[in-house]
Amino acid sequence: MSVSLEQIDAYQENGVVHLPGLFSRHVQRLRQGVEKNLQNPGPYASNNEKSGETGLFFDDYCNWTRIEEFQDILADSAIISAAGTLMQSARVQMFHDHILVKEPGTSMATPWHSDGPYYFVDGSHTISFWVALDVVDEASLRCVIGSHRWKKDVMPTRWVSEEAYFEGDYQPVPDPEAEGMEIAEWHMSPGDAVAFHFRTVHGARGNHSMKRRRAFSLRLVGDDARFTVRPGPTSPPFPGHGMVVGQPLRNDWFPILR
Question: What is the pLDDT of residue 140?
Fold first, then answer.
């Protein structure tokens, strides 16, 4: 699948674009990988248990080095090429993977947030693919158009307590619906992806259907991505990385894919 000029423009201007079928050949393998992850969670796994909410909302990240089904994606030249084209970057480098599973009847929404402030990466060449592994009739992922161009980052918060992840010079988490912001969301088929910038504000609805909703996310960076420090421990933390401010991410931990 090639990326169109319209899709490139949408990504650059809006910070988000829908890419039907980009991951379609990997759906079954990714489902198998998700099941492995559910049966054998990593150190960052969470059930996101919140008082008053129903169902199960599981997420986990940084498992691609131990789950081979997730590694297949990194060898798919169409996906890597799409990432580089949308970022307008010659280089494409792995950052991390993330799975999100909302079982039927899960009421908890993924809170509005922006990924960038949680990460130790700074730069404009960033992209996250949110890949549907099940039919999404009830639109799930929601992105605020143009929020990647806001002058100030949004306060990173903890999903369950909604407390600040760490203090810093951030703007409060918005209420996009109440504030009349333009929100993009799509019905999706298995293998469809939504690509969005690390600074794009997004959230996701709960799963009120009778079907489970699994998603696989792939986070990548490009030419100008550099290590930075945040006011507190980042998520993912990647302890012992040894990098200094302004340094490209070390390619033995974060492989260069193109």
Answer: 84
CB burial of residue 43 (10 Å; 0-12, 13-18, 19+): exposed
Reference 52, options 101, 108, 105, 103; nearest CA is 108
Pairing relation of β-strands 226-227 and 121-122? Answer: antiparallel
Asked if the peptide bond before residue 190 counts as cis, ω within 30 degrees of 0, the response is no
Give the model's pLDDT for residue 220: 98
pLDDT for 154 equals: 96
Residues of the chain short of pLDDT 50, as ranges, are: none
Q: Which one, of 176, 165, 234, 224, lies nearest residue 200 by Cα?
A: 176
Two structure tokens written together for 112: 């509005």
Report the C-alpha gap between 8 and 17 in whole angstroms: 8
Q: What pTM was computed for the model? A: 0.96
Instruction: Please tell me the predicted confidence (pLDDT) of residue 137.
Output: 85
